[in-house]
Design a protein that fits this description.
The protein is 38% helix and 10% strand. By secondary structure, it is an alpha/beta fold. The longest helix is centred in the middle third of the chain and has 27 residues.
Length: 528
C-alpha cells in the first residue's frame, strides 16, 4: 500500500472501541512448580479476567531464554519456552504421574531459574520414556505431525539446543569451527550422535505448542483475547543467527559487526547497549521478508494480537560498532519501513499489531505507524514532566491508542511515585488537579485516569492492580541480574482489587460486548 492508495483501516481497533486488560507474564502466575505455566493456573487466571470484565491478557515473549532469563533475548524466534509447560496437564495427558512431580519445594514469590530448569529437565526425560513405553500412545500421531509441519525451524533449533547443552551452555561461536560454520558433514554427525537428545527437545516443543494452543482456545471461549510480544531483535547466541547468518550484519568470523541499543533515554544517561546483532535488511528484502513474516505467523498461532517491541526499529535502529563500551557512539540506520508492513499485509491479509512506539520517536516513526493505522502506546508514568503538552497526558490521546499505567520495564506505579522527589510529586498532583496524592492511592488514581481516557484499550500490570511497591518490579533496563523473577501468589489473586477493577471497567464503558457464538470476537468493534 502506498501513501497515495485509498485508506484501509488496518488497526485492530475500529472507532469507538473500548476495552481493558491486564499485563502479566506467564512465569509470574502462581504454581507449585517454581514458575508459572500454561496449565490450570493460567486457565484460572483467564477466569478471573473474564469475571473482572477484562477483554485482554497481555503476556511477554514466550521463546526459550538464555543468559539473564530475559524473554527479549530468545534462543529462537519460533520455539517455545519449555519451562512454561504445565506438569499438571502432562499428568492429565497420562505422560506423568503425581509421584513424578512430588517432593519439590520452590519459592512462591520469585522464579529460581536454575532449580526450575533442573526439575523440568527431569520431567522431560520421564515424559519421553513414558511416551515411548506405551505402544500407540494417543499423542504419538500428533507429535509426528508437529515435527513434519514445523520442520522449517524445528530441525535447526533442536540441533542448536542439543549442541549447546553438550557444550555446557557455551556460545555457539565458541564451538568447534566446523559446527560454527555449519559444515554439512559435521552437522550430520552431530545429528546422529545427539539423536536421543534432539528427539527429547522436539517433544518438549510439541508439548509447549500443544498447551499454548489449548490455552488460546480456552481464553477465547471465555471472551478473553491474548496479546503476545514479538522482540524486534534476536539473541546473539540463538539458533536464528546460527542457522541464518546471512540475515545479519556479521564479520568473516560470523561475529556481529554492529550491535543494537538505544541512545540516552528515560532509563539510562549513557543509552542502552543491548548487544543483539542487527539485521541485513538488503538481504532480507530480497527474500520478500520471508523469515520475518514466518516469525509473525508463528506467534499468531498462540495469540490474537501482537505488540511489536521497539517499533521504531522498523523506521531506523541504533547501530553501535561491536566492542564499544557504551551506546553513545551509535548511529541511526534505516530499517525496512513500509515495505515490511506491505509484505505482511499481503501475506496475512491484516496487520494485527500494537506499535510499541516508546523512547526517542521521530516524525518518520509516527508516519510509519499512522500510514498503517497501527495503535500507538502511551505510558502514564512518562506523562508528568511539567509540560502540559506532554504526549503521554490523556488529553493528547487519539482513540487508536493503548494506554498503560506502566510496563514490564517500568517500576510499579507505587514504587515509581515513592521514588519521586517532593517537587516531582507536586508536578503529578498539579497535572491531576489534586492538592495531594498519597503513595497508597496513586495507583488507583492512574488506573482511573487510564480507564477514563479515550484510548481504545487500557492495560495495567497486575502489580499495579494489586498496588504493590518496588519489590514487585519485573525488569530494570540496563541491569543484567535479578530481573524476570517476580511471581504472584494465590493469596494475592483473591484480592478485592478484581472486584474494584470490574466496577471501574463497567463505569468507564470498557466491558466486552457479548456475542451469541464463542467464535466471535469479544467486542463487535474489534477486528482480529
Amino acid at each position: 500500500m502506498s501513501e497515495s492508495s485509498d485508506p484501509i483501516c488496518l488497526s485492530p481497533f475500529l472507532p469507538n472501541y473500548r476495552a481493558a486488560g491486564v499485563l502479566l507474564h506467564v512465569t509470574s502466575l502462581p504454581s507449585s512448580y517454581g514458575i508459572g505455566d500454561l496449565g490450570p493456573q493460567a486457565r484460572a487466571w483467564v477466569d478471573r479476567l473474564h469475571t473482572a470484565g477484562q477483554t485482554w491478557w497481555q503476556i511477554l515473549p514466550l521463546g526459550p531464554t538464555g543468559y539473564g532469563s530475559s524473554p527479549y533475548q530468545p534462543l529462537s524466534s519460533f520455539a517455545g519456552n519449555w519451562l512454561l509447560v504445565s506438569p499438571d496437564d502432562l499428568i492429565a495427558d497420562g505422560l506423568l504421574t503425581a509421584s513424578d512431580v512430588g517432593g519439590q519445594s520452590f519459592s512462591e514469590s520469585a522464579v529460581e531459574y536454575d532449580a526450575v530448569k533442573s526439575f523440568k529437565q527431569g520431567l522431560l526425560e520421564t515424559v519421553w520414556a513414558n511416551l515411548n513405553h506405551v505402544d500407540g500412545h494417543v499423542l504419538k500421531p500428533a507429535f509426528e505431525r508437529f515435527c513434519q509441519e514445523e520442520q522449517h525451524w524445528l530441525e535447526d533449533y533442536t540441533l542448536f539446543q542439543a549442541l549447546q547443552d553438550m557444550h555446557h551452555g557455551a556460545s555457539y561461536l565458541d564451538w568447534p569451527t566446523e559446527l560454527v560454520r555449519r559444515d554439512p558433514v559435521a552437522l550430520d554427525q552431530a545429528r546422529r550422535d545427539l539423536a536421543n537428545e534432539i528427539d527429547q527437545i522436539r517433544l518438549a516443543q510439541f508439548l509447549i505448542f500443544r498447551q499454548a494452543n489449548q490455552l488460546k482456545e480456552y481464553a477465547g471461549s471465555r471472551g478473553v483475547r491474548l496479546i503476545g510480544d514479538l522482540p524486534f531483535f534476536v539473541s546473539p547466541d540463538s539458533s536464528d543467527v546460527w542457522a541464518h547468518p546471512e540475515l545479519f550484519l556479521l564479520d568473516e568470523q560470523l561475529r556481529p559487526r554492529f550491535v543494537a541499543g538505544v541512545p540516552p533515554d528515560y532509563f539510562s544517561a549513557e543509552g542502552q547497549l543491548w548487544g543483539n546483532p542487527v539485521y541485513d535488511w538488503d538481504t532480507i528484502r530480497q527474500t520478500g521478508y520471508r523469515w520475518c513474516i514466518d516469525r509473525v505467523r508463528a506467534l499468531l498461532a498462540h495469540v490474537d494480537l501482537i505488540r511489536l517491541d521497539h517499533f521504531r526499529g522498523f523506521a531506523a535502529a541504533w547501530h553501535v560498532a561491536a566492542g564499544a563500551s557504551t551506546a553513545l557512539s551509535g548511529e541511526w540506520v534505516p530499517g525496512p519501513g513500509s515495505e515490511f508492513f506491505t509484505a505482511v499485509q499481503q501475506d496475512l491479509g491484516t496487520l494485527p499489531f500494537i506499535a510499541e512506539d516508546l523512547g526517542i520517536i521521530t516524525p518518520d516513526v509516527r508516519a510509519l505507524r499512522d500510514q498503517y493505522h497501527l495503535p500507538g502506546t502511551r505510558v502514564l508514568q512518562f506523562a508528568f514532566d511539567g509540560d502540559p503538552e506532554n504526549l503521554y497526558l490523556p488529553h493528547s490521546y487519539v482513540s487508536n491508542t493503548v494506554v498503560y499505567t506502566g510496563t514490564h520495564d517500568n517500576n510499579t506505579t507505587r514504587g515509581w511515585y515513592e521514588a519521586l522527589s517532593d517537587d516531582q510529586r507536586q508536578i503529578v498532583c498539579q497535572a491531576l488537579q489534586r492538592p495531594q496524592i498519597e503513595s497508597g492511592e496513586v495507583t488507583s488514581v492512574l488506573l482511573q485516569l487510564a480507564w477514563s481516557s479515550v484510548a481504545a484499550l487500557a492495560v495495567t500490570p497486575l502489580q499495579d492492580l494489586l498496588n504493590l511497591g518496588e519489590d514487585a518490579r519485573m525488569n530494570v533496563p540496563g541491569q543484567s541480574d535479578g530481573n524476570w523473577r517476580w511471581r504472584c501468589t494465590e493469596e494475592m489473586l483473591s484480592s478485592l482489587a478484581f472486584q474494584w477493577l470490574q466496577e471501574l471497567t463497567t463505569m468507564t464503558q470498557r466491558l466486552p460486548v457479548l456475542h451469541p457464538t464463542l467464535d466471535s470476537p469479544p467486542n463487535s468493534e474489534v477486528i482480529l
